[in-house]
Predict the structure.
Amino acid sequence: MTNAEYLKAQRNEPWREELRKSMKNKERTDIPRVKMPELNPDIRSRNYEEVNLGLSLDQALLESKRCLDCPDPQCVTGCPVEINIPKFIKCIEKNNLSEAAKTLKENSALPAVCGRVCPQEKQCESKCIHLKMKKEPVAIGYLERFAADYERESGSVSVPESAKSNGIKIAVVGSGPAGLSFAGEMAKSGYDVTVYEALHEIGGVLKYGIPEFRLPNEIVDVEIDMLRKMGVKFITNCIVGKTISYEDLHQEGYKGIFVASGAGLPNFMNIPGENLSGVLSSNEYLTRVNLMAANKKESDTPVFFGKKVAVIGGGNTAMDSVRTARRLGAEKAMIIYRRSEEEMPARVEEIKHAKEEGVIFMNLHNPIQYIGDEKGRIKQMILQKMELGEPDASGRRRPVEIRGATETMDVDMVVVAIGVSPNPLIPSAFEGLNVSKWGTITVNQDTLQTDLPDVFAGGDIVRGGATVILAMGDGRKAAAAMHEKLLN
């Protein structure tokens, strides 16, 4: 049965027909979209409490009524892991919240995570039929978070059903979203799955890259514990390609390997003064704070608490970095971005939250030099003023410098958040892997299989940098392809 046939069959269930009859579509579309309750900006900018507070039961029940249960639900096609969105929302409308959570977990290993950090506005919600009627889309992400949270808080968490064990051992390199998604899918199919993580904490970028005010570690831990209950094993402090080799994995009996080692190599601009003390990557900054408690004075590796902090970049990582600096006491926390706000890749919600928390946005500026004091610590930066020219290959208008227009600004810390590159360790350690000029592993786009027949890869090590949900989609796709290959 195809996914479309399955959705159609699900739509014709009697209880869903009753729900459709209970309200006319005009009544449903007249309901205004729910607003997410949030912590007060003055309070939250001084602590690490989660900003979005989640929907109440009444809010979720009302928002669920906005879903029209379309015959051809395009929201599903907009979801990289193809969650049965109409079904889980209709389960909420019916107040069958356990079934809503169960529906989410049929396709997603991390529903509580995705409900918080996925860019739904660019994916499932961008396909919502409400938009064609000039209405706001159904708040799919808010409802996903609500269903997952409600189940967890109820204390009655269901474990997805798994096939009988087939005894086949599978190794996963990396415990980020791609690796966790893959592990969950393979466990459901009866495989003996072991995930190898280089760091001391499971979760990859979910733990080291996303601050707790956006994604609490407790939420990630609950989702990981679910995988443990499904039989997935985790080994930490183990660097595949160094601690254990490709040959070692074969000797231990693994019949398939999924590489999801991410893209943890920071990019820099290669401008004068970048080696000064006080200039660091967003990777280092966020990892030290999120994973090593460097924001605490008793930390073994405390981070510098800058008072005038500039973050270079306009993506979600830049927003995470600048909002972290604000929470660490920065009196002046700035985003320096060479394009206008319209071109920023960060989520609209993240930009909104940053502004509410007092972050200064200096768009159409680009650093060209950092200046240090006599001790080698950054004290100033020179910014080149920019203007927008013609669109580039990405479709965004290209930033062009305004000749002779520069500005010098006092800073005591700079965080560079202009993207990442894949870690070269795995490509160099797995002889025979084909690698692109950008350092990403080359795969068959349909199956995510590499040139090595037993090795598949997905997530940022293939994409070079993407969202949590796209990485999870890779995990699902690779699991399906590996399962089919091992069966034949």
